[in-house]
Amino acid sequence: MPKKILLVEDEKHIARFVELELKHEGYEVLVAFDGREGLALASSENFDVLLLDVMLPGINGIEICRRIRTQSKVPIILLTARDAVMDRVAGLDAGADDYIVKPFAIEELLARIRTILRRVTPDEKSAESLCFRDIEIDIAAYEVSVQGTKLDLTKTEYDLLKLLIEHKNKVCTRELILTSVWGYDTDIETNVVDVYIRHLRTKLPGDMNAYIETVRGVGYVMRE
Hints:
Strand order of the largest sheet: 2-1-3-4-5
Distance between the termini: 42 Å
Order of helices and strands: EHEHEHEHEHEEEEHEHHEE
Shape: globular
Radius of gyration: 18 Å
Mean pLDDT: 87
Structural class: alpha/beta
Number of strands: 12
């Protein structure tokens, strides 16, 4: 069954071009041209990936992302003409899994989609669960629990936590985290990694640094 993608883009020539390219790659594509229509579709139908332009009439892409995150973990890629670090970090803080800056090459967008879909449906035949202290990851169910209480994690947060536990007692550099979780290089890896570490820390119980330790200038580690 083809993967289903929702594209929310108000510039119709861009939307049409991206839609045709995605369909050529075998994806099923629905297109919305304003924020309210996009939010309604995203809330009422099941999609494998959402592509959201940031600057939309009605409701902007970051606000759509924030609202969708209250009800779904669907992967979200933001399409933004804003190249400022804080704009991109704002999108990640709202729950986006990735972003791409306009103008972009269609090959890069397709690569980002493939990467995010691989993260959503990983090949996990080697183990059924991972444990660290009182954290348990059920790989088959794609769920994380602490002391029996399920955590509400996005897929990116899940992948990051899983990586740190797989490398427990070993320091994971920001470069390793970026390559393993996102699967490509970016010019703001420190911001991206640090944003998601902060998200994880707020969702894990207890003190902010109880599970994830910062190794200054290097990266992060979870120690037994």
